[in-house]
């Protein structure tokens, strides 16, 4: 049993009881007076479990002199100062595979919802408009060209699902992946020009920030669909709103936003957008797998001093 600092929130708090059954937890969440917690945790904490909505920066690390491991409860680690951790000899691990299948399911669900106008047609029926006539036709979603920006564990799962829809799969990474049967593009702009739907599945980094900009959206084209299950920061949100408003692209499925949980009123008002509350990975099965990954990372570090799933 070890002393662990848990920061931020998790989507399913009851799963933290599993961690508490194995270790002593010190909690810092929204509205918590962190000073008493840190005063108690500082002399004893060796691992930190980072939930959502909380930044783990150099100042916090310096308050924990025995900290050797930070584990993120998910795939994204954009709220962790990885460089500061590395400089202090602290390992940073995440749980990418734990979230991959359910996030990929949601990515395809958003694509289907936008492409076949499922939400719009649901509203069409509920508002009684079917009584006056049928809705407009849509385009089929199978046999299209799918572009996946980022081919990590989530991107790979999206590719599998796209293949199941008989889609021609393309992907964009810095270098081609050995043994991957999909068509590679080194530039995001080239990927957008080649496909009908662009799935964002990259981590939030300085390099990916705002990369889906006006030029990429223009390349995607007036029949193109954008799906973002990565992080809101990877898309230039004002440029996206403009592209949706002017018909530069056909629609978007968005589970993440620049300043979430704040969502621009323009997006909320649009019929060609399907919105989600950053919940692509929020299933019971995902959280069970995440907590297992957290425990495995902590246990391996405490027993062997190594990092099981390091981010770099």
Automatic annotation (TrEMBL):
<dbReference type="GO" id="GO:0030267">
    <property type="term" value="F:glyoxylate reductase (NADPH) activity"/>
</dbReference>
<dbReference type="GO" id="GO:0016618">
    <property type="term" value="F:hydroxypyruvate reductase [NAD(P)H] activity"/>
</dbReference>
<dbReference type="GO" id="GO:0005829">
    <property type="term" value="C:cytosol"/>
</dbReference>
<dbReference type="Pfam" id="PF00389">
    <property type="entry name" value="2-Hacid_dh"/>
</dbReference>
<feature type="domain" description="D-isomer specific 2-hydroxyacid dehydrogenase catalytic">
    <location>
        <begin position="16"/>
        <end position="311"/>
    </location>
</feature>
<dbReference type="InterPro" id="IPR006139">
    <property type="entry name" value="D-isomer_2_OHA_DH_cat_dom"/>
</dbReference>
<protein>
    <recommendedName>
        <fullName>Lactate dehydrogenase-like 2-hydroxyacid dehydrogenase</fullName>
    </recommendedName>
</protein>
<dbReference type="InterPro" id="IPR006140">
    <property type="entry name" value="D-isomer_DH_NAD-bd"/>
</dbReference>
<comment type="similarity">
    <text>Belongs to the D-isomer specific 2-hydroxyacid dehydrogenase family.</text>
</comment>
<keyword id="KW-0560">Oxidoreductase</keyword>
<keyword id="KW-0520">NAD</keyword>
<dbReference type="InterPro" id="IPR050223">
    <property type="entry name" value="D-isomer_2-hydroxyacid_DH"/>
</dbReference>
<dbReference type="GO" id="GO:0051287">
    <property type="term" value="F:NAD binding"/>
</dbReference>
<feature type="domain" description="D-isomer specific 2-hydroxyacid dehydrogenase NAD-binding">
    <location>
        <begin position="108"/>
        <end position="280"/>
    </location>
</feature>
<dbReference type="Pfam" id="PF02826">
    <property type="entry name" value="2-Hacid_dh_C"/>
</dbReference>
<dbReference type="InterPro" id="IPR036291">
    <property type="entry name" value="NAD(P)-bd_dom_sf"/>
</dbReference>
<keyword id="KW-0521">NADP</keyword>
